[in-house]
Amino acid sequence: MACDLLFRLLLLMVLAATSQGNHLGPTSRLRYSRFLDPSNVIFLRWDFDLEAEMITFELQVRTAGWVGLGVTNGYTFVGADLVVGGVLPDGNVYFSDQHLVDEDTLEEDGSQDAKLLGLTEDDVYTTMLFSRPFRSCDPHDKDITSDTVRVLAAYGLDDMLKLDPERTFVKSIFLLQIVHPDDLDVPEDTIIHDLEITDFLIPEDDTTYACTFLPLPIVSKKHHIYKFEPKLVYHNETMVHHILVYACGNASALPTGISDCYGADPAFSLCSQVIVGWAVGGTSYQFPDDVGVSIGTPLDPQWIRLEIHYSNFHNLPGVHDTSGIRMYYTAHLRKYDMGVLQLGFLTFPIHFIPPGAESFMSYGLCKTEKFEEMNGAPVPDIQVYGYLLHTHLAGRALQAVQYRNGTQLRTICKDDTYDFNLQETRDLPHRVEIKPGDELLIECHYQTLDRDFLTFGGPSTINEMCLVFLFYYPRNNISSCMGYPDIIYVAHELGEEASDSMEGMMAMNNVEWTLENIKKAEKACKEAQQTVLIKTIDEVVENTTGWIPEIIPTPRGPCLESSGGKVEPQDETPAGFRAAPMALLASGNATLRHLPMAALLFGQGAFFWLLATLQAGI
Ligand SMILES: *[C@@H]1O[C@H](CO)[C@@H](O)[C@H](O)[C@H]1NC(C)=O
Ligand SMILES: *[C@@H]1O[C@H](CO)[C@@H](O)[C@H](O)[C@H]1NC(C)=O
Ligand SMILES: *[C@@H]1O[C@H](CO)[C@@H](O)[C@H](O)[C@H]1NC(C)=O
Ligand SMILES: *[C@@H]1O[C@H](CO)[C@@H](O)[C@H](O)[C@H]1NC(C)=O
Ligand SMILES: *[C@@H]1O[C@H](CO)[C@@H](O)[C@H](O)[C@H]1NC(C)=O
Ligand SMILES: *[C@@H]1O[C@H](CO)[C@@H](O)[C@H](O)[C@H]1NC(C)=O
């Protein structure tokens, strides 16, 4: 077996034939695409098969040198995986599954888990098409998950594999986006309406939350909003950090003008039912074909609050802005009216995160048992189809977990590699049902190694938040359900005096934030009794109490065996081998003509190059 394998590898290495002009691979189009670098030199197209857990990438780079695509963890390149390939000047092709042993050195993986589908070079581009499993059995390969993936792309000007920082890029992408906009229905009678702040002078402060109240279009009968799109004015730098649209209930008299959302006039924070969330990195969002936001009936909101969070870190004066949200609506009604449920840790005033923490977890509980009585009508089971996760800069991961009758049902949504710069509404692969009585727990994971001071919950980017928005149907009147721990208990656990919440929070400033105390605080916050605040669209607030349940981690599924290669002793999960793809072997024109090249590379101790040939029909 080992001999056979060695033979195959050698055969692969020396296979030779010209590949130019042969464009190979699946004929089905790859639905998703993105440029990976600011100069638009690297273009990635991809698609995936959720059932088979396979992903296909086509990387097109303006170079005649090598190209590489992989996954990194975002904070260092060490350990990142990178699939590399290229076309040699004589037309031969090389392709290999590798990883980074330090910031710029590549090493071939013992197990080859990427399958080459096409590699071509023309006057302008080198194009590499390959597929790989979401999760191979090779510990050198990073998993492709439903989290934010830091896609690593690199290329060279020649065929010498070495990472050059100037030609290495990382881009956060949500690769496993379930719904492609092109797959959704576009109604024929679309009407467009812009919700925007008009000619607003952005203050020179670092952080501004500007709020204004705007009417929704007045329609004589029921319509559905089915799509939202950010409407951004481009300044020299990105100053709009996020935009939220809140639906207003009937209860309140709304102020006019533009003002600080959370400033002196509390009226500017009225209306708490989020209907649209957009944040840096996000794009437009279209609802599934059976869901829309209802307008035009007596039960519908007539006004919204538009909240725009500006970050003016360079304190630029005199910048005017007219950003907002463009909404698309139609009289062609969908099946369901949608709603948004806001969950998480109540932002103010109890939330704190110690400084210097490698890892700190915050928990916010929601108990839905009071939903019925607060709703004013029976609450139908909530069908969740999408979500948006939100923390600020210290956030590293979030998840929403569902419990029924004391038993954990599932993780509804999560991101283990959250990126503040990529916040967007995401669709769930399967709709999730929440029944009144269920408990929902939000866990937020922070890192504050770069901070010397306590971080508090708050609206500014340097404060923190821990929020999950669930998009669901059919709508009800509940707008948010958020928890926070008994801070007096937490203070006592840390050896501090406190007789009310305010003193409890003040006491946190007295704690010496050693590693031990950070762990103690995390544990105390989790053990403490939670107060759960539930709010309706008409600003009715009620509370209840509860305890944070344990989160049982979801076990990972089995890995997929590799398609060839050798296993290194340190690979704790030995990959099995299937035969190398037939076409690769059968189509070869084996000569020893190209051995010197391989030998040269071996000689330099650089890499093990797998020379493969490409012929039509692979
Ligand atoms: C922004 O652009 C304007 C012209 O469009 C220019 O006058 C100004 O100096 C720029 N500011 C910065 C900070 O680059
Ligand atoms: C809102 O007000 C309108 C009339 O102003 C009324 O018909 C409707 O029932 C109210 N909706 C709710 C939910 O109270
Ligand atoms: C929870 O358990 C009780 C008693 O076992 C049962 O009556 C109830 O229907 C359960 N609730 C749900 C939502 O399954
Ligand atoms: C919202 O509350 C009103 C009463 O305030 C009730 O009539 C209505 O049915 C509720 N809406 C939903 C969707 O449950
Ligand atoms: C919770 O509700 C009770 C009674 O409805 C009220 O007295 C109390 O102030 C509320 N607590 C909070 C934290 O809102
Ligand atoms: C193999 O390559 C040689 C020279 O490159 C060529 O003459 C020959 O026709 C090729 N054979 C096949 C089967 O492609």
UniProtKB/TrEMBL annotation:
<dbReference type="InterPro" id="IPR008977">
    <property type="entry name" value="PHM/PNGase_F_dom_sf"/>
</dbReference>
<keyword id="KW-0186">Copper</keyword>
<dbReference type="GO" id="GO:0005615">
    <property type="term" value="C:extracellular space"/>
</dbReference>
<keyword id="KW-0503">Monooxygenase</keyword>
<feature type="signal peptide">
    <location>
        <begin position="1"/>
        <end position="21"/>
    </location>
</feature>
<dbReference type="InterPro" id="IPR028460">
    <property type="entry name" value="Tbh/DBH"/>
</dbReference>
<dbReference type="GO" id="GO:0004500">
    <property type="term" value="F:dopamine beta-monooxygenase activity"/>
</dbReference>
<dbReference type="Pfam" id="PF03351">
    <property type="entry name" value="DOMON"/>
</dbReference>
<dbReference type="Pfam" id="PF03712">
    <property type="entry name" value="Cu2_monoox_C"/>
</dbReference>
<keyword id="KW-1015">Disulfide bond</keyword>
<dbReference type="InterPro" id="IPR000945">
    <property type="entry name" value="DBH-like"/>
</dbReference>
<dbReference type="GO" id="GO:0042420">
    <property type="term" value="P:dopamine catabolic process"/>
</dbReference>
<keyword id="KW-0732">Signal</keyword>
<dbReference type="Pfam" id="PF01082">
    <property type="entry name" value="Cu2_monooxygen"/>
</dbReference>
<dbReference type="InterPro" id="IPR014784">
    <property type="entry name" value="Cu2_ascorb_mOase-like_C"/>
</dbReference>
<dbReference type="GO" id="GO:0042421">
    <property type="term" value="P:norepinephrine biosynthetic process"/>
</dbReference>
<dbReference type="GO" id="GO:0005507">
    <property type="term" value="F:copper ion binding"/>
</dbReference>
<keyword id="KW-0560">Oxidoreductase</keyword>
<dbReference type="InterPro" id="IPR005018">
    <property type="entry name" value="DOMON_domain"/>
</dbReference>
<dbReference type="InterPro" id="IPR000323">
    <property type="entry name" value="Cu2_ascorb_mOase_N"/>
</dbReference>
<keyword id="KW-0479">Metal-binding</keyword>
<comment type="similarity">
    <text>Belongs to the copper type II ascorbate-dependent monooxygenase family.</text>
</comment>
<feature type="domain" description="DOMON">
    <location>
        <begin position="40"/>
        <end position="156"/>
    </location>
</feature>
<dbReference type="GO" id="GO:0030667">
    <property type="term" value="C:secretory granule membrane"/>
</dbReference>
<protein>
    <recommendedName>
        <fullName>DOMON domain-containing protein</fullName>
    </recommendedName>
</protein>
<dbReference type="InterPro" id="IPR036939">
    <property type="entry name" value="Cu2_ascorb_mOase_N_sf"/>
</dbReference>
<keyword id="KW-0325">Glycoprotein</keyword>
<dbReference type="GO" id="GO:0006589">
    <property type="term" value="P:octopamine biosynthetic process"/>
</dbReference>
<dbReference type="InterPro" id="IPR045266">
    <property type="entry name" value="DOH_DOMON"/>
</dbReference>
<dbReference type="InterPro" id="IPR024548">
    <property type="entry name" value="Cu2_monoox_C"/>
</dbReference>
